[in-house]
Amino acid sequence: MQRRPFLALLAAASFPLRAAPAETALWQRLRAGGHVLLIRHAATDPGIGDPPGFVLERCATQRNLSEAGRRDSRRIGDALRSHGIPIGAVLSSRWCRCLDTARLVFGKAEPAPMLDSMFNDDDGRRRAKVAEVQARTGDYAGKANLVLVTHDINIRALVDISVAQGEIVVARPAGDYLDNLGVLRAHE
Asked: Which DSSP string corresponds to 63-74?
């Protein structure tokens, strides 16, 4: 008799979960365009930050996407395309894990130093990067969605929320800040 609950659980796990109403509303908003998508790079090899002595121009010296991260990036792209989300410019941190995420998701990436990791930046440099992002996004009114691929620490500085690798914060330009509308987990 113990097998029935296990089989029912197994059967339930094999069907995709329905999106929560808030997530469905975010997809609808994105279809209309004019939003800013803050994407944390997809899953990486284990670690925090980068190895000592890493060189920005040499991917082999950095913490890079794992195979799961590359797979999740492709899934994110598939989810955005299947929902009909219009994509405009795709700006990315110059870290290889961000550029690779952007290219796997969207097929393009424009390196943007303002999105580089703030992990080792002093407070003045962090404030300068936040101000540059806010200046770029504050009056964004494009018909497509503007994409920023960056790091958790940067997203926390911009919208005061921590996200998992590969998660997307949907924001609305609001002058001198980004209004966080919610988080999408497009890779699940």
From this structure: --B-HHHHHHHH
Give the H/E segment covering residue 1.
Answer: none
For 112, the domain range is: 33-45+59-184
Tens-of-pLDDT digits for all 188 residues of the chain?
Answer: 443 333 333 333 333 334 556 678 899 999 999 999 999 999 998 888 888 899 999 999 999 999 999 999 999 999 999 999 999 999 999 999 999 999 999 999 999 999 999 999 999 999 999 999 999 999 899 999 999 999 999 999 999 999 999 999 999 998 889 999 999 987 66
In a domain, 51, yes or no: no
Q: How many domains does the chain have?
A: 1
Residue 132, domain member (yes or no): yes
What type of residue sits at position 2?
Q
Per the rule left: phi > 0, alpha: psi between -120 and 50, beta: everything else, 94 is: alpha
User: Which DSSP string do the residues of 72-130 spell out, in sequence order?
Assistant: HHHHHHHHHHHTT--EEEEEE-SSHHHHHHHHHHHS--EE-GGGS--TT--HHHHHHHH
101 residue type, one letter: T
- Nearest-CA neighbor of 23 among 131, 181, 144, 187? 181
Distance CA 188, CA 14 (A): 13
Q: Which domain CATH number covers 95?
A: 3.40.50.1240
Residue 63 lies in a domain: yes
Q: Is residue 179 part of a domain?
A: yes
